[in-house]
Amino acid sequence: MNTLIISTIGSHSALQILYGAKQEGFNTKVYCLRGREELYKRYPVAQEIILLDSYEDLLNLEPANNEIFIPHGTLIATLGKRALDIQIPVFGNKEGMHWEMVRENNLKLLKEANIRTPKSYQPDEIDKLVIVKFPGAKGGLGYFICSSQLEFEQRISEHLSNGLITKEDAKLAQIQEYVVGVTMYPHYFHSVIHERVEMLGIDRRYETNADALGRLSQENYKIDPTYKVVGNQPLIARESLLPEILECGDRLVDAAARLFSPGLLGPFCIEMSITPEEIVAFEFTSRIVAGTTLYTNGSPYSQFLFDENMSMARRIGREIKQAMGQRRLRELLT
Question: What is the set of domains in the chain, with CATH numbers?
Answer without folding.
Answer: 5-90 (3.40.50.20), 101-117+180-332 (3.30.470.20), 120-173 (no CATH)
